[in-house]
Design brief:
3-stranded antiparallel sheet; alpha/beta; 452 residues
């Protein structure tokens, strides 16, 4: 992967260039990893239809099947969440072991909320709704930035990094490109490719072209320009530190083998997993494995999978997407167990929005609002489904539009905030990380009790 100037500029948005560069390369004492924790956000781009990811498997199934006729899953194919009235899409069978071991939870009807909303308030108070509901870009930005009625220029992971100890290699790592969630006001993340090494943009050490050689020689000189004045020195130290970060990361992600690699295999065929989401989570696992040498007491990862804008052929698309996602997550969980870190690492899904409960005429579902999410990690309270499944009546008390666009009953802050608290974000820092924290922490509201 090559990082362009545009990518770099996006990742330091909200901070001065000098301040951002100054953060890169500052030394820090080796972090204490005895209380290591990591959070791994898995963004499902396009708007995942969580209503076919977590399905009622009790007396409500008949209503589900009727309301979703055309894209409803057959009950005898579902993966039961034993001990509850719910089940997962059949493609999530590889995660059944995690459920049985108490390391998987579901969170129902979660989404973007500015204030708690009833249907009556939704209809009468448009000023209480998040802006531009059901818009891909806006809802992605709200999930990542957590400002529901203001512009989002930074993200919750970047704000967590702002409050973290300085490190030579940033403990905030994206393997899914430049994302709003990563942008903080003070510090910059590490962005890794999902395959291949990090490379300098336009750099070719083997080139014999005179212009290329001259340009590269100039860059090498500039990256060690301490004698040319304070501003040039600051910039050159940023460049040389970035090169050093790339070298350190490359040694980890491109090593011929790692103890975690063997866990990323198809559970049926034994073949190595090759999907992009598998490669991303494998690289996250390698960086976690190297936590001690990196001096990281905590790490935050952003990975993603696209393709969830299922306006057509949802059943077919989900069979493919969910199979890749489930195998990748199962491999990641297995790798964490092998490292002895199953209790120290929590992965969680995010997505633009849910989809309309009533299918469209093309075997798909259109943009909606609330959705269901999965959380993976052995620190979780054992085998829990959190939240309320909506009343499935079209036009009923949970329906914003008459076709099953469910109004969320759990805010993102209550969902992700619970993970942030477990991760170690202090009470004093939570309002900085979650700008609307006071709305969702008090008065009967609060973080979802994910951890036991």
């Amino acid at each position: 992967m090559s990082l362009s100037r545009r990518d770099f500029g996006r990742l330091i948005a909200g901070a001065s260039a000098a301040a951002a560069l100054a953060q890169i390369g500052r030394s820090a004492a080796l972090a204490d990893t005895s209380t290591y924790r990591a959070m791994v956000g898995v963004f499902l781009f396009g708007g995942n239809d969580g209503w076919n990811m977590v399905v009622p498997n009790d007396g409500r199934y008949a209503t589900y099947a009727t309301r979703r006729a055309g894209i409803a899953l057959k009950q005898d194919t579902l993966t039961p969440l034993t001990g509850t009235g719910f089940a997962l899409h059949p493609a999530f069978a590889p995660l059944k072991t995690a459920w049985d071991e108490g390391a998987l939870s579901a969170v129902l009807n979660t989404g973007t909320l500015y204030q708690p909303l009833t249907k009556s308030l939704y209809q009468s108070r448009p000023d209480l709704r998040p802006l531009n509901l059901m818009s891909h870009e806006d809802q992605q930005n709200q999930w990542q930035g957590l400002r529901m009625r203001d512009s989002n220029k930074d993200g919750f992971m970047g704000r967590i990094l702002d409050k973290a100890e300085k490190a030579d290699l940033p403990p905030l790592i994206s393997i899914a490109g430049s994302q709003l969630a990563l942008i903080g006001a003070q510090k910059s993340p590490l962005v890794l490719p999902s395959s291949g090494p990090i490379s300098r943009y336009g750099y070719n050490a083997a080139s014999t072209d005179a212009a290329v050689v001259a340009r590269q020689a100039a860059l090498e000189t500039f990256s060690d320009a301490s004698s040319f004045g304070a501003v040039t020195d600051l910039t050159s130290r940023g460049m040389s530190s970035t090169y050093a970060q790339a070298s350190a990361a490359n040694a980890i992600i491109t090593a011929a083998s790692s103890t975690v690699d063997q866990h990323f295999k198809n559970p049926v065929t034994g073949a190595a997993l090759t999907s992009d989401i598998s490669r991303q989570l494998l690289r996250a696992a390698r960086m976690i494995e190297a936590r001690g040498s990196l001096g990281h007491a905590k790490q935050t990862f952003f990975v993603s999978q696209g393709g969830y804008d299922t306006h057509t052929n949802e059943l077919g698309m989900h069979n493919f997407l969910y199979a890749d996602l489930a195998m990748a997550l199962a491999g990641f969980y297995s790798a964490m167990k092998a490292l002895g870190l199953a209790n120290n690492v929590t992965a969680f899904t995010m997505s633009d929005f849910g989809r309309v409960f009533k299918p469209n005429a093309n075997g798909g579902a259109d943009h909606a609002w609330g959705s269901n999410h999965l959380v993976l990690g052995a620190a979780l309270a054992s085998r829990k489904v959190h939240g309320l499944y909506p009343d499935m009546s079209f036009g009923g008390p949970d329906d914003a539009a008459g076709d099953g666009r469910w109004i969320p009953t759990i805010a993102i802050e209550e969902y992700v905030g619970a993970i942030a608290q477990w991760y170690g974000v202090s009470s004093a820092d939570l309002p900085y990380v979650f700008p609307n924290w006071s709305t969702w922490n008090g008065g009967g509201r609060g973080p979802v009790p994910l951890f036991g």
